[in-house]
Automatic annotation (TrEMBL):
It comes from Hippoglossus hippoglossus (Atlantic halibut). It holds the Pfam family EpoR_lig-bind. Keywords: Glycoprotein, Membrane, Receptor, Signal, Transmembrane, Transmembrane helix. InterPro entries: FN3_dom, FN3_sf, Growth/epo_recpt_lig-bind, Ig-like_fold. GO terms for cellular component: external side of plasma membrane. It is a single-pass type I membrane protein. The chain crosses the membrane at residues 252-275, 301-317, 329-347. GO terms for molecular function: cytokine receptor activity. It is found in: Membrane. Its main location: membrane. Residues 1-28 form the signal peptide. This is Truncated growth hormone receptor.
Length: 353
């Protein structure tokens, strides 16, 4: 059994004190805001550093539990710009003590160059190696602007619809000049619910949302980030999408017009075909009557002879008393009887032949 000595007790106490010693705070601005912990470090520390347009940036700090360092000027911000081996620590160019903020303007901001930050009081310096960054890594662009939406189409059932959401890039990003390359993340949800649905991240300034339900309100907002980086900016102001049931009935009007014009077009096409093939259709519907096959009779002479016989029978009906009547129906009836008489007469004559 090993015998403990005073030095071994001292070593154990040192190990325990090291385990209980609060770890040096990691800078919150190097982490995504969505993954920040709620427990604040005890000592003074930087809470965030953000650049909106990759030309300037701001850093904020907190005194932690050191209330004696909460007064304006109790803590000062120093930065080291690693642009040369002989770089020296310099003090913050512009303070805003009411917000505990240090602002770096265009003259003090450079991209692709590392910055390190530290806080100093009269008696101590608070520095963490994690408080070093390059400006492009802390860019969180301003939110997109001019959000709007247009209706794409309604489902045949009239129960759902699709929309196209459009927006403009943040003016501070100067996307048109190519200063920043932006990609967007659009989220939407049914109004007054907590479940946001995200669409795929993409670099275009419009995106379709499919399968929204008729009669329900939807809320949409967008945020963006620099391509190839992880940090998103703030969400834009929300827009609200709503389509009433009335629209489903109105949307059927174009479809009805298309169907009507389609049917009329088909009928016109059929009519043109009939007209172009008129002779053939006449031959099918009204085939020609074959000429008489009796030998020794001239067909043309027979037609003339029969016509003269029928015509000579007309005065018999014309002399009828009914002719004197002024009734139109009676006249038509007399004409019909005369035709019957002619037909029968011709038939008898044809049989005699």
């Amino acid at each position: 059994m090993a015998v403990s000595s005073p030095s071994s007790h001292l070593l154990i106490l040192l190990l325990i004190s090291c385990l209980d010693w609060p770890s040096t705070p990691a800078s919150a601005f190097l982490l995504d805001r969505d993954h920040m912990t709620t427990s604040a470090p005890n000592e003074p520390h930087f809470t965030d550093c953000v650049s909106r347009e990759q030309e300037t940036f701001r850093c904020w700090w907190s005194p932690g539990t050191f209330q004696n360092l909460s007064s304006p000027g109790a803590l000062r911000v120093f930065y080291l710009k690693k642009d040369s081996p002989t770089s020296e620590w310099k003090e913050c160019p512009h303070y805003n003590y009411s917000n505990r903020e240090c602002f770096f303007d265009v003259n003090h901001t450079s991209v692709w160059i590392a910055y390190c930050m530290q806080l100093r009081s009269q008696n101590a310096t608070f520095f963490n190696e994690d408080d070093c960054f390059t400006v492009e890594n802390i860019v969180r662009p301003d939110p997109p602007v001019s959000l709007n939406w247009t209706l794409l189409n309604l489902s045949p059932s009239g129960l759902s619809y699709d929309v196209m959401v459009n927006w403009e890039p943040p003016p501070s990003a100067d996307v048109a000049a190519g200063w920043m390359r932006i990609e967007y993340k659009i989220e939407y949800r049914e109004r007054n619910t907590t479940n946001w649905k995200s669409l795929a991240i993409q670099p275009h300034t419009q995106q379709a949302i499919y399968g929204l339900h008729i009669g329900k309100d939807y809320e949409v907002h967008i945020r963006c980030r620099m391509q190839a980086f992880n940090k998103f900016g703030e969400f834009s102001d929300s827009i609200f999408i709503h389509v009433n049931d009335i629209l489903s009935g109105e949307s059927m009007f174009p479809l009805t017009v298309v169907l009507v014009f389609g049917i009329v077009g088909i009928l016109i096409l059929i009519l043109l075909i009939v007209i172009s093939q008129q002779h053939r259709f006449v031959m099918i519907l009204l085939p020609p009557i074959p000429a008489p096959k009796i030998k020794g009779i001239d067909p043309e002479l027979l037609k003339v002879h029969l016509f003269l016989l029928c015509y000579s029978a007309w005065p018999f009906f014309y002399m009828n008393k009914i002719i004197d009547s002024s009734d139109i129906l009676a006249r038509l009836f007399v004409a019909f009887l005369s035709q019957i008489y002619c037909f029968c007469f011709l038939c008898r004559q044809e049989k005699k032949l």
